Amino acid sequence: MTEPEWHIRQGNPGDRELLRSFACANSSATWQCEVERYIQVQLIDWAFDPHAAEADPRLLLGFSTSGELFGVAAHEKVRLREGNGAVVHATKIEVVALAPKWQGRSFSEGSRISDVLMSALLADISARPDASYRRLVTPRAQSS
Amino acid sequence: MTIFSSLNVVAARLARRGDASAAERVASAAASLESGEEFAGLRRLLSALPSHEAERVVAGDLPADRAPLAEMIRALANHTEQARPGDIMLTSPAEVIFAGQIAELTDALVVLVQAPGSTTIVPRWMANAAHRDQVGEFLALVADQIDGASAVVEAVPAIDVPAARFSPFGRGDNRATAITADDVRLLSGEPEPLRILIPVTIEE
Question: Quick one: A6-137 is in which CATH superfamily?
């Protein structure tokens, strides 16, 4: 069995500089730039906010065998609120992004790179002991 | 006159409910707002007013010729709303807030409309005491239940705050986690296992 051409690891506070240089946007797409800026400037603070530990925020980084950061994903537990007070447990996918060079491509053994990153994200969410957090929420960036 | 962010009250209520982590987070947001430029601007504008006029502003009576002050208060209200924790429900059945716009007036009553089909009636003297007794003005009612058949209701002056630009990121916008009754029905029951296409090991 061959070794995969990627490895995924959890992010840590020392990844701030690495993320600051991560690019994923087409500069003509405003909403993509919003995602990119968020990853570069705010994502580390979001992931390691000591006041948010209860939400168990998780940051995942995908690297090629050459050590290049190809993708970033993050998620956390949320409680969705309905106006009359009903509460639903879910997982909010904070962000999923691939660097432009890796978008629309596959590794040599055939796995789409985007599938690898999404599989890592879903596996991490599935690992939560409480199955109710398998409900996924992905608020969209607005194309304003 | 000393001005504090209303988020301090939210933090205190959270602490009283035993949610120390959320209380700390909201108190931190309050401190951040209070040390910001808008709060400093509000203090500066209020301190420039005669004290009786500043007290009227704090009571909700905003003079029409004070546009910069009104804009400052709206901006602060917007940022306060964004910082209000979306994952915490502060209104319980015993603690209800109804905020709306005055649609009609009679000698004795004010008709307050929150949204089409959501209307309530307020004694005019209550609206008057909150400096809100003209059609088009905004008023909020805060009700604290005493027992099954009684409550204390306070009329509080309100202002119209334009909706802040939505951001899906972070924890600052309640709209990211707001759902409807239809959503609740759709999401009920045990979720299906997630379909994972490629086995992936995640390293620490």
Answer: Gcn5-related N-acetyltransferase (GNAT) (3.40.630.30)
